[in-house]
Amino acid sequence: MTANIDARADESATERQDAGRREVFQYAIRRFGVYLFTLWAAITVAFFIFRLVPGDPMNILLGNLTRAEGRQRDAAAEEAIIAHYREIFGMDDPLPLQYVNYLRKAVLGGLDLGPSFVEYPAQTKDLVFRRMPWTLGIFTTSVFLAWLIGTGLGALIGWMQRHGLSQLAVILSTLLQITPQYLVALGLIIYAGYTLRILPAGGPYARHLQPEWSWEFISSLIQHAILPMLSNMIVIGAGFTLGMRALMISVLGEDYLTFARAKGLSPFTVLKDYAFRNALIPQVTGLAIIIGATLNGTFIIEILFQYPGLGTLFVQAMGLRDFNTMQAIVLFSIFAVLTLTLIVDLALPLLDPRIRRVA
Amino acid sequence: MSGSALLEIRGLSAGLQGRRSITQVVSGVNLDVHGGEILGVVGESGCGKSTLAAAIMRLLVLPQVLQSGTMTMRLEDGKTVELMELPDNELRHLRWRHLSYIPQGSMNSLNPVLRVERQMTDTLIQHGLSKKEALDRSIAALELVNLDTKVLQSYPHELSGGMRQRVIIASAVSMRPALIVADELTTALDVVTQRQILQELAAIRDELGATIILITHDMGVVAQIADRVAVMYAGKIAELGTVNDIFEDPQHPYARGLIGSIPRESGQRVEGLQGEAPSPWNYPTGCRFHPRCPEVFERCNQHTPTLQQRAMDRWVACHLYDAETEFDG
Amino acid sequence: MYFSKRGLMAIVLVVALLSMLSMAVAQDEELVFGDLPRSETFIVASQAPHNDVWDSFNYYQAPTYNNATGYANVIVEPSFITSHDFHAWLAQSWEYNEDGTEMTLVITEGANWNDGMPLTMDDWLFTLQYNQENADKGIAWSSFLRDVTWSAEGNEITFMLPEPNWRFHYNFTGIGTFTPVPKHVWEGQDPTTFKNPDAIHSGPYRLVSSNADTRTTIWERRDDYWDPDRMPAPKYMVWLKRPEADVAVFEWEEGNYDLGRMPNSVMIRMMSANPHIKPLVHQDPCPRGLIFNTTIPPLDDNLFRRALGLLLNRQAVANLANVPGYVTPVLWPNLGDPDETYYDAAAAEEFQVTTFDPEAAAALLDEAGYPLVDGARVDKNGEPISLDALYIDIGNPGWTVWAWLLSEQAQLVGIEINPRLLDIPTFLTQGPNGEFDIIFRWFCGNLPGDPIALFEGLHSDHALPIGERSGGVPGRYSNPEMDAIIEQLRTHNPASEEAQALFRQAYRLWAEEAPYVTLYGENEGVVFNTEYWTGLEVGQAWVHWTPAARQIIDFLEPANR
Question: B141 partner at 20 to 30 Å CA-CA among A190, A357, B200, C410?
Fold first, then answer.
C-alpha cells in the first residue's frame, strides 16, 4: 500500500510537468481557435444585420443633399450623386457578393473596411483607429480600476460581513449597481462639473488645445478623463464589489478556511492566502464577462461626455445607416472584448492550478 | 474526576444563534481528557459531537455560538490556560503548538491554490520557526504518516483522498501538540485506507505522546483505537468509560443500542436503535433519549438525569440507576 | 535627503501657487478657448448632423456637407444671398435674353480670398470648368452645367443654355448654390478627396484651428476682407458641437454660448437661470404638410383625400408646434400673405384647403360613397377603412401630434387611422419609396415669386413603382392635366402673365385634387445670449438650418457691458 502511494508521488515531478505544459499549450490553441471563429461570426452577423435595419444610407444622403442645397432641388443632379456613391459603396452588387468582397478586402486588403459616410472620404479603418484609443483608454482603465477597487472592497466587506459598515456598503453598492449609468454620469456632470466646478465635464481635452507632448495638454487630458472614468467605475465597481463579497462569503464557508483558522494563522494570512486567493479566481472570470457586458455602457458615457470614441461614432453611423462604419465598430469592439477576454482566460491557469490540469 | 486532566471541560454549552434566541446544541458537557489517551466521542449524526469539537477548538462561527462553561488546559510547563477566555491573539499562538485540529471533511480542508509545502510551512513560520526548520518539521511529519516528501510540491487536487488526509494529519502533528482534536477523521475514506490511517494515528500517539480526542459516529473506529469512550446523545454525554467497560457492559440504553447496532462477524441480526435522533430545535424534555428508550418509565419524561459516577472511570446519565446512586435529579 | 525632497516639493508648490495667483491678477479680461477675449468672441453651439467633418473644408463633399464648423456657413459666400429678397454678394445681377436661352451674370469685382489672393474672373471660369469636368464624380453643383457653354467678357459671364430656361439663375441665388472656388488652391485637386485644409474661401474669417476630437473650430477675422461694409463685429468666431441637451443647458446658463438651438422644453428654464438668454423665433420657409399615397384605395380618390384634409385641426397643431405668439397657420401652400398673382383665392375657398370641419368631412365621405356601416366607414368593396399615419419625433410636438389629432377626428367620422412613429433614417427611406399611407413632410417653394417647386414634385415622372426612390412628392400622384401645366410652367418665365395664369390653374387643380395637404408653418426657436453680443432680432431675414450665418453675423453688435 505504501509503495503504491510512493509510486503515485513519484510520477509527479517531470512527467506531470511535461503533461501539464502540453495541456496548457493545447488549451491555448483551442482557446485561440474559438477566438478566431467568434471574430468571424461577429463580423458576418454584423454585415447582414446592419443591412436588414430599415433605412437606406442613400436616402439619408439624399436628405442631406436636400438640406445642403436648400430649395434648389435638382433631381437629376441628386440621382447622379447617388449613383456615384452607390458604386463607391459597392451597393449595386448582390448581397452575397458584397459580403465576399467585404471579407476579402478586410482580410487580404490589410483591413480595408471600405469607405465611410460619417467623415467621407475618410476610410472606415482610419476612422475607427482614430476613435478606438479614446474608448479603450477610458474603458479598460475604468473597468480595470473598478475591478481592482471592487475586488478589494468586496473582499473586505465579505470578510467582515457582519460589521455594520459592511452592511451599509452592501446597500450602497446595490443602489449604485442598479442606477442607470446615464444618471450616474449626468449626476457627476451636474455636481462635479457645474455645481462644484472641480472638474471639466465634457470633451476629451480643453477645446482650444491640440494634441501635443506638453504638460498643458496632458493635464487637460487627465482632468477630462476623470469624470467619464468615474461614471463608469462607480457602476461597474459596485457590481464587482457585490460579486466579490458574495464569492468571499461562500469561500469563508469552505473547510479549508476553518482549517486555516485552526492552524493558528494570522487573520491577515487567512484573508490573503486562503480566502482572497480562492475568491479571486471566479472574480477574474467575472472580469472577462463584465468586459463584454459593459462596453455599451461606456458608449453612453462617451456620448454624454462628448468623448470622441467609438460610441459617439456608432451613434453617428447609425443615424446615417453607414453600415461600413457600424460593422467596423462592432468588429473592433468584439476584437477588443475578445482579446481582453482571451488574456484573462489565458491568465486564469496562472491563478488556478486546477485549470492547468483539467483544461 | 481528577484534577490532573490535560483538558478539563465543565458545563460547556454551545448553540445556534437564531433571530431571537439561541438553540442549544451542546448542553452542559463535563469531560476530562487525560494526557496521552485517545478519547473517542461517539454518537449519531446531529448529536452535537462536531459542535463539541469545534467548541473545544474555539472554531465556532456564527450562527454557532459558545454559551457558557470552562475549558481548562494544562500546558507542558504546568501552567494552565482557560480556553474560553483566551483572547484571539493568544489563542492563535496556542493553536498547532499545543492544540491541533483534524477537521471533518478533510477532502476540502486543504487550500486548492497553494502547494502543500506552503500550507504546511506557513503555519510553522508564523509560530516562530525559520523557513528551514519549518520545512524540516514538515518533512518529518510527512514521514510519520508514510508520505513521500514529493507531495510538498503538489497541489491538493493532485493527491488522492488518503494522501490529503495524511497531509492534514502531518500538518496537525508537525508542531508536536499535546492535544489533537480529530473530527470524523476517516469518514470519507475506503476501509483499507481508514485502517492504515488509524494505525498511523495510534503510532503518532505512541511516538509523540499526544492526547487525541477522536470524534466519530463509527463505533468500530472507537473500538479499534480509543482508550476511553464518551457516548453523546442530543448534546449531552450519556455515558463515559473505558472502551472495554463500555463495549462489554454498556449501561445507558442508548450506548447499548449503539453497540447493538454494530454488525457482528456471525452476521446475526441485532436489535438496532428505533427512531431518529432529535434535532436541537425539539429536544425532548426530561431525559432527551426517553422517546426512543426501550426502558423508559414515568420519571424519564419529567426529570433530566445528570451524569453520575457509577464506578472507577464510569459515568452514566440515566434514571435507571437513580436508586443505586441514591441521587435525585 | 528626505528633508530636502520635501523642501523641494514645498518650493515647487509655492511657485505654482504664486504663478497661478499672478495669472489671476493679470486676467482683467475674461479669456476663453485659451487666449480669446470673451467679449470679442462669438460662440456658436451647433447641433452638428451625424456626419460632422472637422478636418476637411471641401465645398463639393455632398455626403458630408460641412455645416458645423462654420466653413459652409460663414466662409463660403454665394453669388446672391436670398432672404425675402436677393442680396448681391459675389455677383451683382443676372439677365436673360428674350427667349430664355442665354443668361448673363455680372460678377462682383474686387473680391478676394481669405488668404489674401484676389478673387477674379479666372477663378469663376476655372470653377465652372472644374465642376463640369468632374460632373461624374458625384459632386454637388455640377449637373446644372450639362450641355451649357459660356463665355466671359469683362465682369460678365454669358451662359448659353441648351433650351429655354428662365430659372437658370436659381443655381446662383441662395446659400448652397454654385460659387467659385480659388483656382490656386483647387487646381489639380480631386474634388472628392481634397480637404482644402486651410479653409480658403472668400468669407471674412480665416481658420485658426479645427479639432475633430473636441469638435471645435476657431476662426479669426481678417482685416483684408473685400467688402468693408459687410465686416462682421466679432474678432473671433468659435463653432463647436454642443453636448446633449441635458448637459448643454448648463453651458447656456453659464453664458458659454452665444447662439444655437435647444429644445423648446428647456428654453424657459434657461431663460430664468440666465436673464441674458433670449429666444429668437424664425419662420421656416417650408410649411409642414401631409402626403397621401394616391395608389392605395381609398386614398386614390380625391374626395376622400379632401375629406381627410377637412379633419385636420391645423390651428391646434400649429399652437402646439410653435413658440406661443408665433403661430402661423398656412393659408396657402407657401408661407406669407395670400398672393393672388400665383394663387386662386376662389379655389382655396371652394375646396376648403385649410378648413377644419369634421361635419363637412362626413358629408363629403357620404357623398363620395364611403357610408357609415356599424360605426365604421367602408370602402368601395365594403371593407372598413384603416390607414397608417407615419410620423417622426424630432422634439417638436407639432411633428407628432398631428397624427394623433387626425386619428382622433377620423375615429369620430368612423375611419381608423393608426399613428406610427418611425426613426429618422427609416422615415427618410420609406417616404421616398412610397411605403406609406399618410406621411408627414415639408414643402419648399421658390421665393420670391416662383412657386413651381410646389407643383414640380407632382409630375407623373415621379410616380415610380412603390419601393423605388422618388425625388418628387412621393405620393405617386399622376394626372395628365397636372403634367401638362407643369411642362408649360417649366418653359415660361415665371414673371410672365402666361406663367401666372398657369400657376393659378395649377393651384386650383392642387386644391381640388389634394395630392398633399398643408398643415402649418413652423416658427423655430433659436437661443441667443445677449450678454456679449446684441443685434439679432425676430423678423430679421435669416435661416437657422441653412448656412445663412454669413448674413446673420453682420447684424451682430458688441453688447455694452
Answer: A357
Q: Which residue stretches of C458-496 are H helix?
A: 480-491
* Residue A262 to residue B127, Cβ atoms within 8 A: no
Rg (CA), chain A: 26
Work out the percent of chain C whose per-residue pLDDT is above 70.
88
In this prediction, residue A5 has a pLDDT band, given cuts at 50, 70 and 90, of very low
Q: Does the beta carbon of A351 lie under 8 angstroms from any beta carbon of chain B?
A: yes
Q: Buried b / exposed e across C487-523, counting CB within 10 Å, b at 16+?
A: eebbebbbeeeebbebbbbbbbbbbebbbbbbbbbbb
Write the CA distances from C220 to C30, C44, C314, C524, integer angstroms.
18, 14, 46, 29
Residue A336 pLDDT > 50: yes
C-alpha cell of B187?
469518514
CB–CB of A353 and B113 under 8 A?
yes
Coil, strand or helix at B256: helix
For chain A positions 142-201, those within 8 Å of chain B (CB to CB) are: 162
pLDDT tens figures, A241-294: 999 999 999 998 888 888 888 888 888 888 888 999 899 888 888 887 777 777
Task: Give one word for C215, left, alpha or beta, with left for phi > 0 and alpha for psi -120 to 50.
Answer: left
* Distance separating alpha carbons of residues C219 and C238, to the nearest angstrom: 6
| Interacting residues of A206 by C-beta distance below 8 A, sequence separation 6+ | A200, A220, A224, C33, C34, C214
Q: CA nearest A267: which of A169, A159, A161?
A: A159
Best A250, A259, A350, A354 residue to mutate vs chain B (most B CBs within 10 Å): A259
Task: Write the burial class of residue B179 (CB in 10 Å: 0-12 exposed, 13-18 middle, 19+ buried).
Answer: buried
pLDDT of residue A179: 87
**Grid cell in block for residue C310:** 377637412
Residue A255, H or E segment: helix A255-262
A193 inside 8 A of chain C by CB: yes
C62-to-A58, C129, C545 alpha-carbon distances in Å:
12, 19, 16
Assess contact for B167 and B147: CB atoms under 8 A. yes
Cβ atoms within 10 A of the Cβ of B292, count? 19
Length of chain A: 359
Q: Are the CB atoms for C242 and C44 separated by under 8 Å?
A: no
Number of neighbouring beta carbons within 10 Å of residue C279? 17
Please name the residues in contact with C21: beta carbons below 8 A apart, sequence gap of 6 or more: none
pLDDT tens digits, residue range B143-161? Answer: 888 888 888 888 888 888 8
How crowded is the C-beta side of B4, counted as CA atoms within 13 Å? Answer: 3
User: Which residues make beta-bridge pairs with C523?
Assistant: C283
Distance CA B135, CA B155 (A): 17
Instruction: Give the pairing type, strands C288-292 and C557-558.
Output: unpaired
Average pLDDT, chain A: 83
Q: Does A71 touch chain C (CB under 8 A)?
A: yes
User: How far is C307 from C514, CA to CA, in rounded Å?
Assistant: 10
How many C-beta atoms lie closer than 10 Å to residue A4's C-beta? 10
How far is Cα B221 from Cα B198, in angstroms, rounded to an integer?
8
Instruction: State the pLDDT at residue C478.
Output: 93
Place of cell 481557435: A33
Contact indicator for A80, C81 with CB cutoff of 8 Å: no
Stretch 224-253 of chain B: residues touching chain A, C-beta under 8 Å: none
State the amino acid at position C152 in one-letter form: A
Strands C41-46, C236-241: pairing kind: parallel
Distance linking the first and last C-alpha atoms of chain A: 30
